[in-house]
Structure to design on (108 residues):
């Protein structure tokens, strides 16, 4: 992406987005948050769209207060799904059944 006002040129990598500020012509690059539901705390569910599986597991760890182990062969997998925050068993089952794996849960 290139700004015609400032001449600034940016190249995005996966999981980044660019925002053009029309008034100044500046381009801001930020990381994409794959939780498509910023009000998850209120709706009690996380929604992901094409999110990297390690990102999904990291969000689950934040909300549930557990550490999960993820098979290294799954780090490049992506998930589009709604995960409930009020049922950890169902949430882990979604990931486990989708990827035919087991998420080992460790208490913090």
């Amino acid at each position: 992406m290139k700004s015609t006002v400032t001449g600034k040129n940016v190249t995005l990598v996966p999981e980044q987005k660019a925002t053009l500020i029309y008034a100044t012509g500046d381009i801001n690059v930020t990381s994409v948050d794959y939780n498509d539901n910023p009000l998850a705390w209120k709706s009690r569910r996380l929604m992901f769209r094409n999110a990297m599986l390690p990102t999904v597991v990291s969000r689950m760890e934040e909300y549930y207060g557990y550490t999960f182990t993820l098979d290294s062969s799954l780090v490049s997998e992506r998930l589009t799904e709604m995960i409930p925050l009020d049922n950890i068993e169902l949430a882990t089952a979604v990931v486990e059944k989708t990827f035919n794996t087991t998420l080992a849960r460790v208490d913090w």
User: Anything to note?
Assistant: The longest strand covers residues 45-52. The longest helix spans residues 53-64.
